[in-house]
Specification:
The protein is mainly alpha-helical. It folds into 2 domains: 47 residues, no CATH class; 124 residues. It is 60% helix and 0% strand. α4 packs antiparallel against α5. It is found in: Endomembrane system. It is a multi-pass membrane protein.
Length: 197
Amino acid sequence: MSQIADFFWQPFSSGALKLLPKRDVGIRAKSKRADRIPDDPQRPLVTDYHSINNPTMRVRVPKKTPTPVKVEAKVWFANERTFISYLSMGLLLSTIASGLLFGSRDSPARWFAFAYALISAGVLVYGWAIFQKRLTMISARDSGNFDLLWGPIFICLALFIAILANFIFRLHEAKKHTGVNPLSFTYAWNEAGTKSS
């Protein structure tokens, strides 16, 4: 009968309770972990961080089981964020290219629109390739370098060359149309004088 009552009324069996270490003298019967301060006047020193040096209370440290390395979520999100930034840049360039293509009537502007469209397609393909490469590296838990410096440099260089070529072409076209270099100081002075009068 006591075994049945012990089974239903106690959270642990009497055999399991016998395996627990005996309480030390001076510790209250219903003490909590924070209350395990001995009642005797001997207090632990500050150097041992208020711990109780009780030889009967020993805790076995569990062994560490080897588990696979978990990749944090911020690594996956950083890869996706980089891909989204390349997508937004490529879509912005394609918007500029389509605006030039459908808004201009002369053929040089259309050629520059095709150049911007090629650069935007290159940005989109490069962003996708980088995303897939980093995804493979993250999945393989590769500790290699994720930085690729040459891609953004080539993108900026291609944009700079396209914009500079567009500027130079428009400058020569304006010089051919007016007969005067539009960047000269005398041309700007004369234009300002004619507009003010």
